[in-house]
Design a protein that fits this description.
Layout lengths: L2 E6 L22 H12 L3 E6 H7 L4 H15 L3 E5 L5 H17 L5 E5 L1 H5 L1 H7 L4 E3 L4 H8 L10 E3 L4 H16 L27 H5 L13 E4 L2 E2 L17 E2 L2 H15 L3 E4 L8 H13 L7 E5 L7 H9 L2 E9 L3 H6 L6 H14 L3 E7 L6 H14 L3 E6 L7 H9 L7 H4 L17 H23 L26 H4 L1
Parallel strand pairs: 1-2, 1-3, 3-4, 4-5, 7-10, 10-11, 11-12, 12-13, 13-14
Antiparallel strand pairs: 5-6, 8-9
Helix pairs in contact: 3-4, 6-8, 8-16, 10-11, 11-12, 15-18
Bound molecules: cobalamin (B12) and iron/sulfur cluster (SF4).
Cobalamin binds next to helix 1, strand 3, strand 4, helix 5 and helix 7.
């Protein structure tokens, strides 16, 4: 039996934030760590999950106090293994965290092994091993590899596990920088074994973390009502290959059954008291027969009237028939990555969606009066001013109840990232740049064909337009009356300028 501590790093945005705004922030519990922890416990290991996001926010942004509590927990629990799961935005915090935890372990006389997993470790395994001072890195899904590791198997024999004692890791860097540059695809010769039967997994036991922190009534997830919500996953992997997305580095396509999912919903209602849930899959539309089966089962068990849910779906996957079906099963909100409303840019993104799909999806929501979120990307490589204006125009015309523009930043693990690296547009891995992913007012590097100053104007305009819509219609939950004018307050820095996008549209 091993003593395993699984740890979620904190988000730097939460440092020194004295007043949290939990009612309006979208936060998700560390699903993967909870799932891995549940699995390891069932296999007889002693497990604890340390959620430094929850700790730091609860400690009102006091990082020193949070780290001191973490140190105490290490001294008390005496872990054989400390595992961390993280995204690229957490790189800098993880670097600090591993050093800190190693010192605590050494002082306490512990011979703890440090392991890394999750999307960043999976897409940059060799560099994670080298630069972040882990002993082992796990590539891809870890249900099988981590169980073997904790059972004491020789790490060199476990597919998907890299360590300093093997040359594999560094050979892998070579393969990626040459092979990937040529093909634009990621090469992972030593990915972990994946679990084929997802239904063989136990339901994640959210009691391993302070789940009330995540399930407390919140407006951000549904906008139309205060939701007490946790997350579930319909499947793994994606059938699409969008060039900006890092996800395909991780998983192959598999799904849970409808019975498993509906049982999980009932389990979460009974054990955590939720009144809603979020399907946190990148898209719930990849297996439509499953969606129909799931909806039918939700209705048959009377859950359509007892719980509401939301999830992401692609614009080309929705139809009137499917939307009616989902709504009749309790679906209260859908989220779309429309990204752009220019066919030229959508094609460059390998998005496999067209402007006509975007238009159809947005119109359908208005007609059927179902709230939705429109997520847009601005600054895509090769994007021109006219493309950006087309996206802004899309938001202006459809007035989505919730909308936002994201400043494009290439994600490590995405085909884009490798291509930009091969072209020399990215000359080095830059953790401080990764930190900006998802920031509202980003000042990151630019890859599109629009001068920086003009881009900043357009971005600020797009943001203020979305904020206005979301503020006016999102919180109260009704979609803007058709044809109503949007009165976006002028932005001081460019409201006078003749080239203002407000005047151009
Ligand atoms: C749900 C989700 C979220 C949730 C949070 C999920 C959570 N609590 O972990 C929310 C909505 C909050 C979110 C936010 C963001 N996300 Co997100 N998110 C996802 C999504 C869709 C699903 C994650 C998931 O649960 N997958 C399923 C589980 C089973 O897989 P997994 O987490 O990778 O875990 C497996 C392995 O990685 C491994 N593993 C994981 N942890 C560990 C730890 C150890 C020790 C070991 C050994 C193994 C291991 O084993 C697990 C089980 O097999 C993924 C894409 C995807 N489909 O994976 C994007 C994704 C992870 N997100 C991404 C991004 C960029 C973001 C944001 C920055 C977006 C933004 N614009 O703000 C923010 C950052 C949030 C933050 N500050 O931390 C990127 C990350 C890319 C990268 N290189 O870092 C992804 C890959 C999507 C993409 N566009 O490519 N996200
Ligand atoms: S962005 Fe979504 S649809 Fe596109 S490849 Fe990634 S997970 Fe699939």
């Amino acid at each position: 039996m091993a003593r395993v501590m699984l740890c979620q790093p904190w988000n730097f945005h939460d440092e020194n934030v004295v007043h949290d705004d939990l009612e309006n922030e979208w936060r998700c519990a560390p699903y993967s760590l909870v799932l891995l922890g549940t699995l390891l416990r069932k296999q007889g290991h002693d497990v604890c999950v340390v959620d430094l996001i929850e700790r730091l926010v609860t400690n009102r942004g006091n990082l020193d106090a949070t780290l001191e509590q973490f140190a105490d927990q290490i001294r008390r629990f005496q872990p054989d293994i400390i595992g961390m799961g993280f995204f690229s935005i957490h790189y800098v915090e993880v670097q600090r965290l591993v050093r800190f935890a190693r010192q605590v372990c050494t002082k306490a006389g512990l011979r703890t092994t440090f392991i890394a997993g999750g999307i960043h470790a999976s897409t940059e395994p060799a560099l994670t091993l080298k630069n972040l001072e882990f002993d082992h890195v796990f590539i891809g899904e870890a249900e099988i590899s981590l169980a073997k590791f904790c059972d004491g198997a020789d790490p060199r024999t476990i597919p998907g596990v890299l360590g300093h004692d093997t040359k594999k890791a560094f050979a892998l860097t070579e393969t990626r920088s040459t092979g990937a540059a040529k093909t634009g695809t990621l090469l992972f010769p030593d990915k972990s074994e994946v679990l084929h039967d997802l239904d063989s997994l136990p339901f994640p036991d959210y009691h391993l973390v302070n789940y009330q922190f995540y399930a407390r009534p919140n407006r951000a997830k549904f906008r139309t009502f205060l939701a007490s919500s946790l997350d579930i996953l319909m499947g793994r992997g994606c059938v699409y290959r969008c060039a900006f997305c890092a996800y395909n580095a991780l998983s192959t396509v598999r799904f849970h059954s409808a019975e498993y999912l509906v049982d999980e919903v009932e389990y979460l209602m009974a054990t955590c008291g939720i009144d809603s849930f979020y399907f946190m899959d990148s898209t719930i539309g990849n297996n439509q027969p499953l969606l129909y089966e799931f909806s039918e089962l939700m209705r048959r068990r009377g859950l359509d009237r007892r719980i509401r849910w939301n999830g992401c779906i692609r614009p080309n996957q929705i139809s009137r028939k499917l939307m009616s079906e989902l709504v009749s099963a309790g679906c209260a909100h859908l989220l779309y990555g429309f990204e752009s409303n220019s066919d030229r840019v959508l094609k460059a993104m390998v998005k496999d969606c067209k402007v006509s799909d975007n238009e159809k999806a947005a119109s359908l929501h208005r007609e059927m009066d179902v709230p939705y979120t429109a997520s847009m990307l601005m600054g895509y490589p090769g994007e021109r001013e006219e493309d950006i204006l087309a996206s802004i125009d899309f938001i202006k015309r459809h007035k989505p109840p919730v909308a936002g523009f994201n400043w494009y930043i290439p994600l490590p693990g995405s085909p884009d990232y490798d291509q930009l690296r091969a072209k020399g547009s990215i000359d080095r891995d830059d953790p401080m740049e990764w930190r900006k992913i998802g920031e509202i007012a980003s000042q990151a590097r630019l890859f599109c064909d629009v001068p920086r100053d003009r881009f900043k104007e357009l971005f600020a305009y797009g943001q203020s337009l979305c904020n206005k819509l979301t503020h006016d219609y999102g919180v109260w939950g009704c979609i803007a009356p058709h044809g109503s004018a949007i009165d976006v307050p002028p932005i001081a820095s460019f409201s006078e300028a003749a080239s203002s996008p407000m005047q151009m549209l």
